[in-house]
TrEMBL record, chain A:
It comes from Apostasia shenzhenica. This is Trafficking protein particle complex subunit. Belongs to the TRAPP small subunits family. BET3 subfamily. Keywords: Endoplasmic reticulum, ER-Golgi transport, Golgi apparatus, Transport. InterPro entries: Bet3 (IPR016721), NO_sig/Golgi_transp_ligand-bd (IPR024096), TRAPP_component (IPR007194).
TrEMBL record, chain B:
InterPro entries: NO_sig/Golgi_transp_ligand-bd, TRAPP_component, TRAPPC6/Trs33. Belongs to the TRAPP small subunits family. BET3 subfamily. Signal peptide: none annotated. This is Trafficking protein particle complex subunit 6B.
Length: 186, 166
């Protein structure tokens, strides 16, 4: 029998190569800063951060599956729990809480009390429309798309805008049926 | 205990940053992309060195500061020290890392299957260019760190042997 998939990412996080979070936090901050200078429009920065996240998520899902030993989730509820407890833990070393399910079980909130991305960060008044952590929503969207789930991820609360936690709303738009790119006789 | 994140987070963000600037924002102007990437590194180095020198006494000369970069600073970033430090005693320092983490996993983008075994010069050139784009970020980090230590400088990088299978 296959070993049971872990319900937390603690053991995996303890075993992967880790670095001081400051390097990560400051690097991300410097990138956002450069994008703000170059692109000027806050909306455009949001879009590009999301796009960068998406590209990362598309690749990161492989690493996630390889390291976490997670197999297919039975439903979207389990998927959300896995992202919150295992996904965030393995990469960022923090966990999220899943709450606020809608009646259909297709959208929920991921609440991050702790978020290494926002350490040292203060937003100036000119950046009030900036979703600073938009890369995270892109990562989740990209990663889920690779496992046949089309989602929309939006920000509800943000520590940098004065809220007490970061809250991401994840909505399952549709399950993409798996299509095999080859025929039997190929 | 200091907060930690998986190393792959840093890799993912740095790789995506380089590709965003080179392939999307400034695909037609590699020099501009390079300048932006270096500027991001400068910012990071400038801030990091401040945090890492909190408990250090003031450096008395350039060599002391360079040694700090080679040992403590490099260890914080890459969990190893610089392997070799050379100087011409006229203000030029050469720092050599024989196992630089950020380029060990770079491989050429897959090219259509070609019949010949060895890479053509143009493929080789392309790989060299892609790799060098990834070096502007660490160069910027070193320049930012040294500048903040009171040593304005220029930093460039050279690769003598790219990672390869033998």
């Amino acid at each position: 029998m296959a070993p049971a998939a872990p319900r937390t990412g603690d053991a995996v996080f303890a075993s992967v190569e880790r670095v001081n979070a400051e390097l990560f936090t400051l690097t991300y901050g410097a990138i956002v800063r450069q994008l703000l200078t170059d692109l000027e429009e806050v909306d455009e920065v949001n879009k590009q951060l999301d796009q960068m996240g998406y590209n990362i998520g598309v690749r990161l899902i492989d690493e996630f599956l390889a390291k976490s030993n997670i197999s297919r989730c039975v439903d979207f509820k389990e998927t959300a729990e896995v992202i919150a407890k295992v996904g965030f833990k393995i990469f960022l070393g923090v966990t999220a809480t899943v709450t606020n399910w809608d009646a259909e079980g297709t959208s929920c909130s991921l609440v991050l009390e702790e978020n290494p991305l926002v350490d040292f960060v203060e937003l100036p008044d000119t950046c009030q429309g900036l979703y600073y952590c938009n890369i995270l929503s892109g990562v989740i969207r990209g990663a889920l798309e690779m496992v046949s789930m089309k989602t929309e991820v939006t920000w509800v609360r943000d520590i940098l805008h004065g809220d007490d936690a970061c809250e991401l709303r994840v909505k399952l738009v549709k399950q993409i049926p798996e299509e095999y790119p080859y025929k039997d006789d190929d | 205990m200091a907060r930690e994140v998986a190393e792959s987070c840093v890799d993912a963000v740095v790789i995506e940053m380089v590709s965003a600037f080179c392939d999307r924002f400034y695909s037609a102007e590699p020099e501009l992309a390079a300048r932006r990437i270096e500027a991001i590194g400068y910012q990071v180095g400038h801030q990091l060195v401040e945090r890492y020198t909190v408990d250090c006494p003031r450096f008395t000369d350039h060599l002391e500061a360079i040694k700090f970069i080679c040992k403590d600073f490099w260890s914080e970033l890459f969990k190893k020290q610089i392997d070799n430090l050379k100087t011409n005693h006229r203000g030029t320092f050469v720092l050599q890392d024989n196992m630089f983490r950020w380029i060990t996993r770079i491989s050429p983008s897959p090219v259509p299957e070609s019949k010949n075994e060895s890479p053509t010069p143009s493929e080789d050139n392309q790989l060299a260019q892609a790799t060098s784009m990834h070096l502007y970020f660490p160069c910027g980090i070193i320049r930012g760190a040294l500048t903040n230590l009171g040593i304005p400088c220029a930093v460039s990088a050279d690769i003598s042997h790219r990672p390869a299978c033998k």
